[in-house]
Amino acid sequence: MISFIIPFANTNDNLHNWKSPDSKMIILSTILAIKNINKTLSDLEYSYEILLVDNTNSFPNIEIPNLKIVKGLQYKKDIPKKYITKYKIDNLESQSMWASMAYNIGIENAKGDYIILQHNDIYYHTNMIPSLIEILERDSLGYI
Questions:
Q1: pTM attached to this predicted model
Q2: pLDDT digits (tens, 9 = 90+) for 24-47
Q3: Which long-range contacts (CB under 8 A, 24 or more apart) does 111-117 make?
Q4: Beta strands 67-71 and 48-54: pairing type?
């Protein structure tokens, strides 16, 4: 099984209003990336899941095949200390910190033998995923 993990995090307060123009574009880009994963893998023999880690608690509740939305932490006013220690949070204003935390939460929830850390602006060609898996297995790599 392949687990795709997409972080949905932003330091822009407008993202909490998903109807704003900027938020709509971010959400649309994310949905298109998810649809590309489904389209690319639909004819292949791999089982897969797509985990969207919603740090903002604002991603629209929509049904897309293979998509599971996992709650992140950014939307919480007070993050429990155990998470601050576990994820070594040192800057709550850093977009990259929230994205990396979302990846870690996604990895904890992933069921796949292969994990792909996905951005919402990456699209795959038909043979890309099988080619990567072939390289991983052929060369006994831990990651690419």
A1: 0.82
A2: 788 888 999 999 999 988 877 889
A3: 111/1, 111/3, 111/49, 112/1, 112/2, 112/3, 112/48, 112/49, 113/1, 113/2, 114/1, 114/2, 114/3, 115/2, 115/3, 115/5, 116/2, 116/3, 116/4, 116/5, 117/5
A4: parallel
Q: What is the DSSP string of 73-125?
A: STT-SS--HHHHHHTT---TT-HHHHHHHHHHHHHHH---SEEEE--TT----
Q: Which residues contact 49 (CB under 8 A, 6 or more apart)?
A: 1, 2, 3, 4, 66, 68, 110, 111, 112
Q: How is residue 46 written in tokens?
A: 């791999």
Q: Residue 55's closest CA among 115, 96, 114, 4?
A: 96
- Residues listed for the chain: 144
The letter for the amino acid at 13 is D
